[in-house]
Amino acid sequence: MADTTKTPLPVGAGYGVVIGVGFFFAFLMMFISYLQNRYTQYSTHQSEEFNTASRSVKPGLIASGIVSAWTWAATLLQSSTVAYQYGVAGPFWYAAGATVQILMFSILACKVKQNAPRCHTYLEIIKARYGTLAHLVFMLFAFVTNILVGSQLLLGGSAVVTSLTGMPVYAAIFLIPVGVCAYVILGGLRATFLCDYSHTLILMIIILYFMFNAYAVSPLIGSPNEMYNLLQKAGTQRPIAGNKDGSYVTLKSNFGLIFGVIQLCSGSGTVFLDQAYWQRAIASKPSTAVRAYLLGGLAWFAIPFGFSTTLGLAAAALTDNPRFPTYPEVPTSGQISSGLAAAFAAETLMGQGGAVALLIVLFMAVTSCASAELIAVSSLLTFDVYKAYIQPKATPKQLIFVSHIMICVFGLTMSVFACIWNAASIDLGWLFLVMGLLVGGAVFPTAFAITWRKQSKAGAIAGCLSGLAAGITAWLTTAKHYYGEITVETTGLSYPTLAGNLASIMTGLVVTTTITFIRPDNFDWEVTRAINAVATEGTTPIDTSTSELSDAGEKNEITAISAPTVAVSTPQTDLPAHLAPTTQEEDDPNTLRRAFKLACISAFVLTFILDFLLPMPMFFSGYIFSKGFFTGWVVVSFIWVFASSAISCLLPVWETRGGLVRLFKKMTKDLGRKK
Ligand SMILES: NC(N)=O
Fold first, then answer.
1. What is the DSSP track for 250-304?
2. Which of 73, 261, 291, 508 could staple 157 via S-S, CB 3.0–4.6 A?
3. CATH H superfamily, domain 11-532+594-666
4. Is the CB of residue 267 below 6 angstroms from any atom belonging to ligand 1?
5. What SS3 class is residue 529?
6. Where in the cell is the protein located (predicted)?
């Protein structure tokens, strides 16, 4: 842990940001919820609105929500750690290794719209398809995923808050979620989207501030040329093991590549098994879910790539500068693994201003992701535990009440687990590399549950459990084999975590497909399409064979509204009106089929480009960047961050311009009447 006597900011700054900014957003949310309830048709007092944002959110805001949910503390801190450890390969593999899952998720987002358009959670699909035992097994993996993600957010966030301000780490761990719980309770899922938006906006501005400072302004670096020179020098003084000639400016980095593979496996678990991503698919307008995920994935890439190509590399470049916090020593491996490379760089480059900017950007990342996790877990606990097993006939009021309670329960749970990791000397780096092997077994069984009608129940359950067993076995035996003992240190190293992650995800895949091929299922998707459906006598389901539309967007809404064959009109006794789906939730099957094709082609092509076509030739040729190539690399990171800002900050405003104008008119009319 950092020396608290030398912190760049006073302890009050830590409390100020953690409590002050948290409650600022809570009050902002209170105001937004008031406007929403008063001037729009969406009420935060309705369970459906609270948990699914009435399934009406447009792709720009969903993309912004995806960017924000996938931007963890680790996205900023761990990416800078691997930049410090592996040079330019670190930021590249961090970003490329965790973008593809979001792109791939576009396929699941489309399938969930096709095969379970009215579900609240993905576990409802598992229960409807495979029954209670599978529901409980998958629920275990879902909760483990959310607990790991939630607690590592607080672990990484609190380590940096403590290092920058000296705030006691346990105080940070418990106080960070308080404001977030408050604003999520006040606003529900739509609130998290709006706060996600504002957080992403601030995040992008601060990332650009760091980038411009490091590459254009700072007297310590000030240009890609100088960064290149400093990195070349660092490569001769502290050569990187496993990198071509020990260089910082090459993608021929053996441990960087190993990290990339771990990132691919671990990211698959933490996206596919996290209700937060399903929730964004569920909340989006059916016809645009795919677009939202593709945009969100591409926009997210820029965050770790731009941030750590700046601060992670700056930390490596400036380690020998007298302004570097650990000078004349180099940082310890424990400090780097705790995620402090970015903090050291920000402080060296910009002094207190850098520390404040980092504190804010980190707080934005932690809280926006925490809000997504809170509402995601609250939905699972409400619909998959309370409604499924405790109170099947729960009223909307009860559902909302339970959702609120569960947000607090999970907020506390995240904090308790973060304390446990901290007390056990487990840091962000360790948790980041180990997470995937604990949940990876369930990745393919979960993806197949919504995409493959043949996957059998036995295959699904056996895939999850055997993946878990194989992952843990491979992890621990590799640690013992290579390092002779099983300790926190040896189990957090590259080879054991690589073995564990690969074993877990691949065993899950092989076991579920093998068992399925032996005795395939022939599942009828009508079962999952009927989840939460309210079939009213005398009505017919929407015709799935007609309607030719060329536009996936607005035209579809028009068709949906005017569809003559409406599946729902009157609620059944056990489902309140607002829990019943509306015709707008349905989408034209042809449009969805086209969206599915787009998702598959885009996801596979982009994955191929990002993870093979771009890096592999540079890896196998052992190319060390020239100065010109490095400058181009940095320029690309700038362009990507600008493009990402346009997607996640400008697009949502552009899409809702009509609604914003209407809201403004209603407000001014209202104010005029009151005068
Ligand atoms: N969300 C991640 N993997 O940074």
1. BS-BHHHHHHHHHHHHHHHHHHHT-HHHHHHHHHB-GGGHHHHHHHHHHHHHHHH
2. 73
3. Sodium/glucose cotransporter (1.20.1730.10)
4. yes
5. helix
6. Membrane
Nearest-5° Cα angle at 367, 363 to 368: 115
**Rounded CA separation 430/86 (Å):** 17
Among 345, 357, 11, 360, which Cα is nearest to 167's? 11
| Contact (Cβ atoms closer than 8 angstroms) between residue 547 and residue 588 | yes
- Alpha-carbon distance of 526 to 542, in angstroms, equals 13
Instruction: Mark 239-249 as b/e (b = at least 16 C-beta within 10 Å).
Output: ebebbbebbbb
* Residue 163 near residue 16 (C-beta atoms within 8 A): no
- Give how far Cα 439 sits from Cα of 53, 262, 308, 312, 472, Å: 28, 13, 27, 28, 10
Q: Which atom of ligand 1 has the smallest separation from the CA of 432?
A: 3
The full set of domain ranges for the chain reads 11-532+594-666
Q: How far is residue 186's CA from residue 364's CA, in Å, rounded to a whole number?
A: 18
Interval between CA 457 and ligand 1 midpoint (Å): 30
433 Cβ closer than 6 Å to some ligand 1 atom: no
* pLDDT given at position 430: 94
Tell me the whole-structure pTM to 2 decimals. Answer: 0.86
SS3 content of the chain, % helix, strand, coil (to 5): 80, 0, 20
Residue 570's contacts (CB-CB under 8 Å, 6 or more residues apart) are 534, 536
Bridge-partner residues for 243, per DSSP? Answer: 253
Burial of 408 by CB count in 10 Å (0-12 exposed, 13-18 middle, 19+ buried)? middle
- Give the Å distance between the CA of 95 and the centre of ligand 1: 8
Q: How far is the CA of 70 from the centre of ligand 1 (A)?
A: 5
Best residue for ligand 1 mutational test, from 72, 80, 373, 439 (most atoms within 8 Å of Cβ): 72
Separation CA 328–CA 331 (nearest Å): 9
Nearest CA to ligand 1 atom 4: 75
Q: Is 72 in the pocket of ligand 1 (CB under 6 A)?
A: yes
ipTM of the shown complex: 0.98
Please report, for residues 118, 273, 587, 610, 616, the alpha-carbon distance to residue 444 in angstroms, rounded to integers and kept in the order given. Answer: 23, 10, 26, 21, 25
pLDDT tens-digit profile of 410-447?
A: 999 999 999 999 999 998 889 999 999 999 999 999 99
Counting other chains too, the contacts that 344-348 makes at CB distance below 8 Å and 24 or more residues apart are 344/315, 344/318, 345/80, 345/214, 345/310, 345/311, 345/312, 345/314, 345/315, 345/318, 346/210, 346/311, 347/8, 347/164, 348/220, 348/314, 348/315, 348/318, 348/321, 348/323, 348/324
Cα separation of 635 and 306, whole Å? 10
3-state secondary structure of 505: helix
Which atom of ligand 1 lies at the shortest distance from residue 266's CA? 3
Q: Which residues pair with 284 in a beta bridge?
A: 57
Amino acid letter, residue 342: A
Q: Return the ∠ at Cα 164 (arms to 162 and 168), rounded to 5°.
A: 20
